[in-house]
Amino acid sequence: IRDSGEIDAPIGRDPSDRKKMCVTSTNSKDAITHFRVLERYKNASLIECELETGRTHQIRVHMKYINHPVINDPVYGKNNHGEFGQLLHAKEITFTHPTTKEVMTFSCEVPEEFNKILEEYKEETLGNFVGIGVYMVKDTEKNVIRVLRPIQNSPAFEIGILPGDIISKVDGKTYTGDEMSEASKAIKGTE
Fold first, then answer.
1. How far apart are CA 41 and CA 72, in angstroms?
2. Cα distance between the two ends of the chain
3. How far, in whole angstroms, is CA 120 from its chain's centroid?
4. pLDDT category, 85, cuts 50, 70, 90?
5. Torsion-angle region of 3 (φ positive above 0: left; ψ -120 to 50: alpha; else: beta)
6. b/e per residue, 99-122, with b = 16+ CB within 10 A?
7. Is the sign of the CA dihedral 77, 52, 118, 114 positive or negative?
8. 22 close to 11: Cβ distance less than 8 angstroms
9. Confidence bin at 173 (pLDDT 50/70/90)
10. How far apart are CA 136 and CA 165, in angstroms?
11. Alpha-carbon Rg for the chain in angstroms
C-alpha cells in the first residue's frame, strides 16, 4: 500500500450477494476515500481514512478493492485475528446537524482490544527505530534485519537507505535506535 492516496471508485450492491456492497458501475453511487499510512508492520498497516462520501461499508469495500482488506472483516476480508471483530475504528466523526446546521464533532478512544492486537503486529515487526528512521522487519531466512521503508526526511532517508537494504546481522540482541544507526553505518547493504 502506498503511503497515501485516494480511492475514487463507485459503490453499489454486489450483484451476486445482496447483503454485500462492491465497487461497480451498475446502480452505484460515487464514493471517495482518502487514506494515509500511519504505521507499517510485517503483515499489516495501520491507516487513517477520511471519507468524502458516506456509502454503506465504504472503507471496507474500498480497502478490499485495493487488495488491503480490513483485518477481521468477516464479509470482505480473510484475516482472522481472534474474537474482537473488525480492526476498524471511528476515531472522529464530524457532520453538520441537519436541523440546527451546527458543525458537530465526536471522538472516541481506540478500544483496548484493538490496541492489544495492534501490539501483536508491532511485535512481529521490529518497528520504527527513531534513531535511524526506518521501519524494519527481521528476515528470518537470511538472519538479517531488512528495511521495509525509510521515513522521509529521517537520517536513514538522507543517507540513501532503501527498502530491502540490510541494516544489521541478527545475533539475538535487541537493538536500540542508536545501536541500529551505528550498525547501519558499519554494514549497510552487506550480507
1. 16
2. 27
3. 14
4. confident
5. alpha
6. eeeeeeeeeeeeeeebeebbeebb
7. negative
8. yes
9. very low
10. 10
11. 20
